[in-house]
Amino acid sequence: MIREPLIFEISGKGKRAFSLPELDVPSREDILQGLPVRENIEGFPQVSEVEIIRHFTRLSKANYCVDEGFYPLGSCTMKYNPKINEKIAAISEFVLSHPYAPFDLVQGNLGILKTTEELMNEITGMDAFSFLPAAGAQGELVGMMLIRAYLEERGNPRKIVLIPDSAHGTNPSSAHICGYNIQEIESNEKGTIDISSLEQNMTEDVAALMITNPNTLGVFEADIKKISEIVHAKGGFVYMDGANMNALVGICRPGDMDVDVIHLNLHKTFSTPHGGGGPGSGPVGVKRELEPYLPLPTIKKSEDKYILDFDRPKSIGRVRSFFGNFLVVVKAMVYILSLGPRGLKEVSEIAVLNSNYVRKSLEKDYFLKYTTPTLHECVFSDKFQKKHGVQNIDIAKRLIDFGVHPPTMSFPLIVQGALMTEPTETESKRDLDLFIDAMKQISKEAKENPEIVKSAPHSSYVRRLDETSAARSPVLRWVEKK
Amino acid sequence: MSYTSLSDKDKKEMMSRVGISSMEELFRTIPEGMKLKRELKVPSALTEIELIHHFEKIAKQNKYSEFLSFLGAGAYPHVIPYVVDYLSSRGEFVTPYTPYQPEVSQGTLQAIFEFQTLICLLTGMDVANASLYDGASAAAEAVLMAHRLKQKSNVLIAKTLHPQYRKTIKTYVRNLDIKIEEFGFSETGEIDFESLSSKMDEGTSAVVCQSPNFLGVVEDIKKISDLAHSTKALSVVVVTEPVSLGLLEAPGKLGADIVTGEGQSFGIPLSFGGPYLGFMACLKEFIRQFPGRIAGETKDVDGKRGFVLTLSTREQHIRRERATSNICTNQALCALRATIFLETLGLDGLKELAWQNIQKANYALEKLTQVEGIKRKFHGNFFNEFVIEFSGSLPKVESSLREKGILGGLYLREFYPELENCSLLCVTEMFKREEIDRLVKSLEEALKE
Amino acid sequence: MYPDDFYYTKDHEWIQVKEDKATVGITDFAQKQLGDVVYVEMPKVGTQLEFHQSIGVIESVKAVSDIYSPVSGEVIEVNTDLNDSPELVNQDPHGKGWFIRLKIGDETEFEKLMSADDYEKFLEGIEE
Prior knowledge:
The structure holds 3 protein chains of 3 kinds.
Chain A: H1 49-61, H2 83-89, H3 92-95, H4 107-124, E1 128-130, H5 136-153, E2 160-164, H6 170-177, E3 181-185, H7 195-201, E4 206-212, H8 224-233, E5 237-241, E6 261-263, E7 284-286, E8 298-302, E9 305-309, H9 326-362, E10 367-368, E11 378-381, H10 383-386, H11 392-401, E12 418-421, H12 429-448, H13 450-454, H14 467-472
Helix pairs in contact in A: 2-9, 4-9, 5-6, 9-12
Chain B: H1 8-18, H2 48-60, E1 68-69, H3 82-88, H4 91-94, H5 106-123, E2 127-128, H6 135-150, E3 154-158, H7 163-173, E4 179-183, H8 193-199, E5 204-210, H9 221-230, E6 234-239, E7 258-262, E8 278-282, E9 295-299, E10 305-309, H10 316-319, H11 332-369, E11 374-376, E12 385-390, H12 394-403, E13 406-407, E14 410-411, E15 422-426, H13 433-448
Parallel strand pairs in B: 1-13, 3-4, 3-5, 5-6, 6-7
Antiparallel strand pairs in B: 2-8, 7-8, 9-10, 11-12, 12-15, 14-15
Helix pairs in contact in B: 3-11, 5-11, 6-7, 11-13, 12-13
Chain C: E1 6-8, E2 13-18, E3 21-26, H1 28-34, E4 37-41, E5 48-49, E6 54-60, E7 64-68, E8 73-78, H2 81-84, H3 88-91, E9 100-104, H4 116-127
Antiparallel strand pairs in C: 1-2, 2-3, 3-9, 4-6, 5-8, 6-7, 8-9
């Protein structure tokens, strides 16, 4: 493979990849008077169009992606991203519309936002959605702010948010930015919320419980209604992180579990691409009583016209510019309409079947700390392999040599050496078997030839990278060598 | 449509391995009473052809593209070289996750590293992150960062900072110990230095202003930064129109401590407001309090250059509630578009782009102010946006312009009640001279009506 | 392995006393658990510390840990070498990788700490 240099290293004066039409108004130097004009942009690249195309094409080949193969990142739902979504989101009337356009000139766009809201209400059993949050983390923050605003209005915002020890790191981080202290709730031996621990901690100082259902172990919190009841009895709210909604579509609805607030990740369940880390979209859904607090603006229909509603005095306010990641919402709407009611239910059925197939096929080779039945994902660990000095990170890196992306390793924190595996519904049996065979082979290697696992990957664009020196002496940009 | 891939035989085999005879058994851990006993009430599935028809019909309900529009105000129409769409739609860029496994993500990581470098070169700062959601939330993150660095509770923000950005900042700090105060603008459209200095004291952690500001006027960043530094506050500069950096001095060279803003102008279409691209850059000494993803250079075990996400301990997935921000993702694909855009334009292209913007905007303003009943509202220097004031009622003028197929900018009264009959216009390289002349002529007629 | 003249805490700090001053660091066990240390955040000289107060943060590539003061007192010196060479914590945790020096506040607090023998027994309990 060709090692691709940085663009700055192939730059040369006089090379061009772009030109503008000649300026068709008088060119005047005098208008610059009084302006702080810069002399140069030192180091700014100059390359040809061919070089641009080669540069990024070569770089693209150093990426692994869903279009290429199996990508079982747990809780990330790396399903196939339908191409028709992209085509429709590229329709010029959507792409070229200015966000300050008068409402009556963008009825199509507003209609999409409103219709998608109605679809999400039906899918989740909630009463209203806001599509402003740009990603799941912002959705969480907004969700917590809604709860706080509601409680504040009644005189006491409360102090604590309860979070299970299996939760993703954004949960405590979002609650903290919202001004809350975090109290961890222990999981029981089944990997679910311990009811007695919840009862003990659920006081009138608690604003909310943040729960993920199914949780990050892939286990459904079957006591969810009881949990909601305990929280509600003390005047608290139940916040559900919808990261794992892919297990529930068409099967059951968070709204029916007495959840008060939920955020969804359109880039997980609703098939919009991850883009190498965004743009995502993290819409927030609420029950009726929290609706007045949703961020500005919301969309309402009045006399057959969609209008943006800014006149909402209880709203927490704006959380970003304009109306959210509109084009991402378009893609999610296309996805829902392409599947219909049966197709949506099939998503969850096959996602859960695929996951259980993987689990069953590997449960003798990899340790499962929790043996509770799981839905769309399961969390193996490296306990068996550790005896041979092989850790989860080694297994992950070795998978790369087999042409498979590694599972999630960084959490849940309650499983040491976690390998959180979520195949999603889009994968064929052949791809699942490739993964299963690779995992079995690695387990064998761990016993017989651990070195080959510990020194993996062997076949990638770069091999294992020195993250320690990257953090000790950070080099965060290119600098021209003089 | 269906995007699953199992044959009937596969399904049977897999169910038998799992040990179930019906799909329902997969969901046996969900209590019966909680299950949805009906189909979801969503429209029946559409095929690809039907989807295209359906959405084309919706798209036609948008009438915006039939108009000649001079709207800007934080979202700018600019040229997008075709290679941006071509390259950024490659599946290898569109369909991977965040580059947590660097060995198989070098494409994304090197692109981020180049993006960080480009932002540093443009802003004149030491370090930049991999991007944030958008300009408004980036400005809010900058305020939170300044507060962490200074541990003082007052933040002063210019009234000429984009109204949505000001509102977003206020939402972000509402549950924290941070007080936001606004300072006004003068007759030139620049910030009112008296208003600013009267509000500054030892308790100020940051002064936030935008340049070119919401009224289009270029601020004296040096003077603002010096003033901020005189009480040990940080100078935060917000840039919503970064094409201006192809012409104007880098804020970093004028004393800014944090530069943040919106990168939509760099190869990202208007898209009805999103997804866009927040960017942020700062001085090296502030790196520990910097929010968001950062890519860094390192070597692999064979000594080859490679890139990784680094300084991750600042982030939520490790530090949990004590992270510098709760942000997980960046806007990687938008940052990639910006990277391709900037590298395609290159040094000469970006300078030329900025030059054409300022020239065309000046031409437009000059012609407009020759029309009776229109005057330039602020005399401060501007880049590609400016405010004009009408002698008559603006709504009347606007509606008569609309009849002629023109949207004449953003009516400012909603944001600044004192700017009655004022409109903010944006003129970029995308406008031909004839189109500017058409605006002038139409306004002339409208004002006579 | 663990010097006899040090005291130890359950959070894996050590403290060595010389007259009314004491040096504080983290134990060899702690540095191994953390892995390669990349950054250390320390208190300012002059800070008054209470018993078991957080005095700073130590970071490896993928983990962050608090460091707690084993006893109360005033910070009189911090190990500035760690700013440029955080790896000293891994290379010599009980020596050059020290964190801060304290002027001891309350000597009776040492009764709450462990001896080297006790600490080694404590570790056996963890490692099982």
